Amino acid sequence: xxxxxxxxxxxxxxxxxxxALINFFGLAISICAVILIMLYVRFxxxxxxFHQNEIYRLSVKSxxxxxxxxxxxxxxxxxxxxxxxxxxxxxxxTRISTKRTEYFYNKKDPVRVDDLIYADSTFFEIFSFxxxxxxxxxxxxxxxSIILTEETALKIFGETDVTGRSxxxxxxxxxxxxxxxxxxPPNSTVQFNALISFETLYKEPNNYMGWFGxxxxxxxxxxxxxxxxxxxxxxxxxxxxxxxxxRLVDYNVRYEVYLTxxxxxxxxxxxxxxxxxxxxxxxxxxxIASINFINLTTAHYTRRAKEVGIRKVIGxxxxxxxxxxxxxxxxxSFISLLLGxxxxxxxxxxxxxxxxxxxYLNILFDSYVLSGLFVLFFVVGVIxxxxxxxxxxxxxxxxxxxxxxxxxxxxxxxxxxxIIAQFTxxxxxxxxxxxxxxxxxxxxxxxxxYDKDKIIILSLENESSRIQTELIKETLLTxxxxxxxxxxxxxxxxxxxxxxxxxxxxxxxxxxxxxEIDDDYLKxxxxxxxxxxxxxxxxESDKSAYLVNKTFIETFGLTDPIGKIVHRNGExxxxxxxxxxxxxxxxxxxxxxxxxxxxHLGGFNFIALKVTTENYSDLLKRIEAxxxxxxxxxxxxxxxxDKKFEQVYKSEEKFMxxxxxFASLAILIASLGLFSLTSLIxxxxxxxxxxxxxxxxxxxxxxxxxxxxFLILVLAANIIAWPVAYLFVQNWLEDFAYRISLxxxxxxxxxxxxxxxxxxxxxxxxxxxxxxxPLKSLKYE
Amino acid sequence: xxxxxxxEKYYTNKFVKTYVLRNINLEIEEGEFISIMGPSGAGKSTxxxxxxxxxxxxxxxxxxxxxxxHKFNDRKLSELHxxxxxxxxxxxxxxxxxxxxxxxxxPLIYQKMNSKERKAxxxxxxxxFNIVGKKDLFPNQLSGGQQQLVGVARxxxxxxxxxxxxxxxxxxxxxxxxxxxxxxKNLNEKGTTVIQVxxxxxNAAYGNRIVNLKDGWIER
Lengths: 781, 220
Ligand SMILES: Nc1ncnc2c1ncn2[C@@H]1O[C@H](COP(=O)(O)OP(=O)(O)O)[C@@H](O)[C@H]1O
Ligand SMILES: [Mg+2]
Fold this sequence. Notes:
The complex is a heterodimer. The longest helix of chain A has 38 residues, at 318-355. Chain A is elongated. Helices cover 51% and strands 18% of the residues of chain A. Chain B contains 7 helices and 10 strands. A 6-stranded mixed sheet of chain B has the order 6-7-8-3-9-10, with helices on both faces. In chain B, strands 2-1-4-5 form a 4-stranded antiparallel sheet, with helices on one face. The model of chain B has no long low-confidence stretch (mean pLDDT 92). Classes of the chains: A alpha+beta, B alpha/beta. The complex binds adenosine-5'-diphosphate and magnesium ion.
């Protein structure tokens, strides 16, 4: 019996190749998209799931006059050890530093290592990172111990068997390699290329290792058994009061700390928005493909009414027929499933490249996921098949043989509503794509208040270079093509750091963004001075002066800002005001900013060069030559300000790219469905078209006759899609401080595109049918 | 074998009853060969479907082998239909996706016959109808006469007691038609009851009784 069903099913499919291909193709693609999106979501939800221990990360909130001003896991180094010593609830702790970039010298040339972190000796007790060689108990105990990943070892030494060897960092201290560690998995929040023992930090006299200062460390804790996060956290306020808060009362500053369990750390910091959006798209794509499946199956089965009649006459009962038709759609669904899985496997590497995350394809072959997928497509098959199966099998044989009684199921209202649903989804996706694109364009082209073009950024990686910026500037200005040069602690793009400052009359201090600059900064970046004067590096007194931005004076209501005093480690006089510029990402409004003239101990971090040409390669060679002339041991690291700027919006661009792909896919599947549906309908109406032609109808006439219904449906879909899409994009835009105002354009464009797609997919077949020789189409019956 | 008593059939469209069959009373003995004649639209096909239990009368009583068919539900009707009745159509109505062999096999599958027995039966009938060479062809690869031959073969393969044929030769040339009529006659002579619808006096002569239908009434 089954063989008979499957034979009929397969022969039916091969007789109707367009129908079969579109069903397979549409379903397979949608399954592929669903799988890829599932992999992404799964990746996001399985961060840090490889650690054996229950680990908590400590975060700090600081309050200024009871307003939260800072919330971050980065805090001072003393809290970890003191917590363990004083609270019995705390079993163990390990601290890591924020990521550093350092230079290592094995042979002559410096080797740059990014993502280097300092870590306590308990690092491997708490985390489940794996050592390839070395003793996990002792490798991070002694000062000046370093553990490398294999890649880093290869970079520095050219080999990986280097445990016990010594290496110099920054032409200063020698370190002993005490182990080789596996790369942290991509779904780990803690990422590193090298680990240095935390003890090393205590050897450095300039490091603050107590409760005041040294805000550079993240503390991870393990709690004693039977201690919940809540009971541990309940002890924190008193503890903090004794350690730090009671001394800050006068400043009206207060700290609070709290714990986050490690698996949820990542998700607590990522916005769920993207996960929601892509899960939503996956569901919509699946929906569109299922609708195709249902519509095509239904339209197609009207042609099989006769078969139902025959089978009934020769002894099939209703149940048998229902099973037959359902098994056909389930077979299609399963074949598509296999195709979709294969397609996903094939596309996974490209996809990883787009989302910049590793997807673990092998989770597909996990029995849960597999059975889940199978159930899903069993259900899709049953749903797609059940309407035609139950409807057709209810036919009396006598009816089934009369095409005119069967024909009208092709135009029943279910089909219409499904087409409307499909196009509503497609149109909403088109509108959203347009709006996302417009918003991104808007951000990337917004007037920034500074000129990011033709700026080369050189990093001052070496301490001796940081305090010789005057010499470096002078030297580089002699290179033809370099127009101006400026030293600073930071350049606009991804935001500046904050410090506490107190204004003239006020009693409490506030956190304000700060950048230290020289007197060429405004000129080099083309930032406008709107009142007062710029620094003059010749005036020693300017070292303690401040420039501020416009938002600063507006926020603090300074009508006559020049000469006003700001307190921090002494008095600072405001000597000038600059126009606002976007030093932080455009997600937020410009905040108050102080531009100081006195970098701390370490000196400046960057030299920015305004150059006259965009032909960088020659210019960079000349700059590098001069640089090496100054000091051959200084690493030559450069970047471009406009690149740095684009980097900030990379995740948005990735989002846009991915959204575009998935939206296009959805629309493609929907239009394929419409195309084959009209093909089927045109085919069913071949006789009618023939008769009308004989009666004198023209091609235009016939095309309109056949496509009018679909165009009306697409218009109806527009009416539903517009408000839905409007609400969605409005909501999405709200995350941006600077955003486009919605106008009719994306909506009108989407409507136009949808109609165009509908017209193209409908008219191809209808015109073909209308052009057919009427004699042929009449004979066809 | 068959007894129709006061059978009525009407279709209701917008609350208007359109009668197709009126007050049909008909007794048919086992082994008869009956020809139903009448103008187009008289209700001949409808009567045949009723007799074949593929449609239900609106009113009246239908006894088949003394069973009250008019009281049966769909499942029982289908059961009775597939064990006792074979159908032959003017348009042949073969399943186009299946080969000759598979078309013949399908009724047996619906009767839940095991595959060995099916093979034997299909082989037997292919032999009897002289179509062994055609068994792997699809219907559209056959001539009309050959298709109808398969149609008759399919109708008799489950050894029904009653064969209903709706204008079986309507689409065929005279000599092809004659072959089919001889076949039916032959089956009748071996004990199968045959009821055919026909427009042709010649074909009607193969039977032993003629029922004339006009506007849904049986003419006496
Ligand atoms: N499903 C139906 N609904 C309404 N009228 C029907 C239906 N089936 C048949 N009829 C009508 O019943 C009448 C008899 O049809 P039929 O039995 O096919 O006639 P015959 O086979 O004698 O030519 C015709 O007028 C036909 O239009
Ligand atoms: Mg008829």
